[in-house]
Amino acid sequence: YLVNDACILAGKPYCAGGVVKYGAQVMTHVPGSACYRCIFPEPPAENDVETCATVGVLGSVVGIMGSIQATEAIKYLTGIGELLINKLLIVDALSMNFQSIAFNQNKECSLCGEHPTITELEEYSFQPCRKK
Known about the structure:
- A hairpin with a 4-residue loop joins β3 and β4.
- It is built from four helices and four strands.
- A four-stranded antiparallel sheet has the order 1-2-3-4, sandwiched between helices.
- The protein has helices at about 1-10, 35-40, 50-55, 60-80, and strands spanning about 15-20, 25-30, 85-90, 95-100.
- The chain is about 30% helix and about 20% strand.
- The longest helix has 20 residues, at about 60-80.
- The two termini are about 20 Å apart.
- By secondary structure, the protein is of the alpha+beta class.
């Protein structure tokens, strides 16, 4: 959320990726497109999510996500191909299924919507990789 918010407020593009266990998700944002908060408006409560400290991650899935993010950056910089803009790519490494879900910018989004209420960065206490 912090990277998403910082990039939106600064008007910068970014490619966000996340991995837990054997699954992952990735999306790309450019100014004017949907942001992470358009799909997931609020960070989850700390006790509501699995963490890498408790369930781990498969290292090769991290490599897949890094490669996809690098590819998105190259496509953005060179102006070729179709970016994962307004799309969430979900990867299930156990079945090796890739699913792309299209979504629109949420006009009610608290960050990038028509009337944003988030106008500055705030610190989050959630630390997904913290050991308990």
